[in-house]
Design a protein that fits this description.
The chain is an alpha/beta fold. Helix content is about 35%, strand content about 20%. It contains 15 helices and 16 strands.
């Protein structure tokens, strides 16, 4: 494509469904450019949800407990954590994989994979798709996983360390398939015979929001009709806990675990580890309408950026965070005043919370004082690679039900001038309000930032 030709075009968005046309300078151009200039991006809606979280093993119980302000934090039961600086986490409770998965298959699956598959089962069922008639060639799976099969890795390496001198190196034939981060998306496609795009995104705590953005764009571009997307994580292990402790990233409030995750409070001292999975069924609008699907909301836009600042710390001025929100708004063709709720990254760390608030203030201006903000990590803990998916689900349900879950455990304002308490942080109690559109923020180690926006569906 010749640069002198491209420069003569003016591309204008003419409607919310992203139709593009050439308004002036109609000169000769390549077939590819002609296609781009006349392309209509498809609309994407959410038609199914599934979740396993520290506050509920399905969507209904998770949502009910979030609205009640229930904390999922408790002393760790999965292993002896008595010698660790942090001895509590937000573990999944009363989960029995055999209630959903054949026992022979369970032995081949890491815990994070079990969570992903069971949450996907709920989401697929919730979507109401007829699996006998649906075109499985055009259904794909994109998941976000930050760490992957760390349970399997630690078990196998520990066994090797203890036995290799006597027995030689012995590893399970399922060691690699259970450990690798992509296997959960593969497992879901195998379960249902979905032949569409299938892969995993890894960008630390932004992983599952990146996955949602990718799945969204695949449908918009006509590469799939339906995408199973979201994320899963199960990293509450000696290595996971010890590693984050060594970074001084975790709260050490061992005497009061349920109040340890306290975003935006003066006494916050780090995040609380969580685990679980969140799965969304994204569907091309006309495909959903043709089969009479129920629609939770419309996925309107997504954004991505990089802090390019530090391995683990967010930019103190919130530069990457503000940029990613601006990009999501632009992608959704929305203005700051169109957003009524932000589910913030809000991890309860001394550095991260103020920088995010500063970014929100920069992007939203006066609208920052008119919308609701809340961090559901105050209840679920930080699900790492699965955090974005669970929090996107929260946004879907807030838009559908016009209610904002709270940020719990707030009892003292911080003197940090970057945390503007004139904003509505939805402290300690859920709030009813009309939610036209909601934005979900996720930021990961390495400076990875991703966010998505959902809005009320209008035909």
């Amino acid at each position: 494509m010749c640069g002198q030709h491209i420069s003569t075009f003016k591309i204008k968005t003419v409607s919310a469904d992203c139709r593009f046309r050439v308004e002036e300078g109609r000169k000769a151009y390549s077939p590819l450019l002609q296609l781009i200039l006349t392309m209509e991006l498809k609309r994407v809606v959410v038609t199914g949800l599934g979740a396993i979280t520290p506050v509920g093993n399905n969507i209904q119980s998770t949502w009910e407990n979030l609205l009640k302000g229930v904390s999922g934090a408790a002393p760790i039961k999965g292993f002896d954590a008595s010698q660790f600086k942090t001895q509590f986490a937000c573990e999944i409770k009363d989960f029995v994989a055999a209630d959903f998965i054949d026992r022979k298959e369970i032995r081949k699956m890491d815990l994070y994979e079990q969570y992903a598959l069971v949450a996907a089962m709920e989401a697929v069922k919730d979507s109401g798709m007829d699996l006998e008639t649906v075109d499985k060639d055009n259904i794909g799976v994109v998941l976000g996983v930050g760490i992957g099969g760390i349970h399997t890795f630690e078990e196998q390496i520990s066994e090797y360390a203890c036995t290799h001198e006597e027995k030689g190196p012995r590893f399970s034939p399922f060691f690699i398939p259970k450990m690798i981060a992509d296997i959960a998306s593969g497992r879901i496609s195998i379960q249902y015979g979905f032949h569409g795009p299938n892969y995993t995104t890894t960008s630390a705590c932004a992983s599952s929001t990146n996955a949602i953005a990718d799945a969204f764009n695949l449908i918009r571009l006509g590469k799939a009709n339906v995408m199973v997307t979201g994320g899963a994580e199960a990293a509450i292990t000696p290595g996971g806990l010890g590693g984050f402790n060594a970074m001084h990233a975790l709260s050490t409030r061992n005497d009061d675990p349920t109040r340890a995750s306290r975003p935006f409070s003066a006494s916050r001292d780090g995040f609380v580890m969580g685990e679980g999975a969140g799965i969304l069924i994204l569907e091309e609008l006309e495909h959903a309408k043709a089969r009479g699907a129920k629609i939770y909301c419309e996925l309107a836009g997504a954004g991505m950026s990089a802090d390019a600042h530090h391995l683990t710390a967010s930019h103190p001025e919130g530069l990457g965070a503000s940029l990613v929100m601006q990009r999501a708004l632009k992608d959704a063709e929305l203005q700051p005043e169109d957003i009524d709720y932000i589910n913030v990254h809000g991890t309860s760390t001394p550095v991260g919370d103020p920088s995010e608030v500063k970014a929100i203030s920069k992007v939203f201006g006066e609208q920052a004082y008119k919308l609701n903000i809340s961090s559901t990590k105050s209840m679920t803990g930080h699900l790492l690679g699965a955090a974005g998916a669970v929090e996107a689900i929260v946004c879907c349900l807030s838009v559908q039900n016009d209610i904002i879950p709270p940020t719990i455990n707030h009892d003292e304002d911080d003197c940090d001038e970057n945390i503007d308490y004139k904003m509505n942080f939805t402290f300690n109690k859920a709030q009813q309000r009309t939610v036209r559109a909601a934005l979900s923020n996720t930021f990961g180690f390495g400076g990875h930032n991703a966010c998505c926006i959902v809005k009320k569906y209008q035909d």
